[in-house]
Amino acid sequence: MKIIPIEKQGAQKLVEGLNELLADLAIFYQNARGMHWNIKGKKFFELHARLEQMYQYLAEKADEVAERIKALEAVPLHSFEDFLEKAHIKSRKNISKSDDVVQAVRDDLIQLLERERKLLALAHEIGDEGTAALLSDAIRDQEKMAWMYEAYLD
């Protein structure tokens, strides 16, 4: 008996999407780390701490996604080369000004949300409640984060 009783074709499509999400999480994680290391200016203390929270959150979500891929009897991406090839979020360099950092984080959150919403629809379509729950929780958290970063920019 399969642990997750969904048909093979649907599972493969979902795993492809989850691996792309994993790649986005990995790139976003590294972007947040880089901005954490390089932030400058009057908002340094506030954003330095906020970016640390962000990359810790992203690391946790990446682990959850990778474990879900394993539960779907597939192999999660795990090399930087694969992450760069599959991610839709772009690698960012040399962002150190407060407003630029906040805009970049907000934009990356929006991209994550777009991918997660598509995957959530697919998970519901194929009857994968475990993946749907994982994605729903992430969407709820990230919508709040995106709203907060958006408010910072106003």
Low-confidence stretches: none
- Portion of residues in helices? over 70%
- Rg of Cα set: 16 Å
At the fold tier of CATH, the topology name is Ferritin
> CATH first level: which class?
Mainly Alpha
Largest sheet: none
Q: Given the helix and strand composition, which structural class is it?
A: mainly alpha
**H-E order:** HHHHH
Distance from N terminus to C terminus (CA atoms, Å) equals 53 Å
- Number of alpha- plus pi-helical segments: 5
CATH homologous superfamily caption: Ferritin, core subunit, four-helix bundle
Mean pLDDT: 96
Strand content: under 5%
Describe this protein with a few key phrases.
mainly alpha; Ferritin; 5 helices; 78% helix
Structure notes:
The protein is mostly helical and 154 residues long. The chain has one domain (8-153): Up-down Bundle (Ferritin), CATH 1.20.1260. It has five helices and no strands. It has helices spanning 8-38, 44-71, 80-86, 98-126, 129-153. Helix 1 packs antiparallel against helix 4. The longest helix is centred in the first third of the chain and has 31 residues, at 8-38.
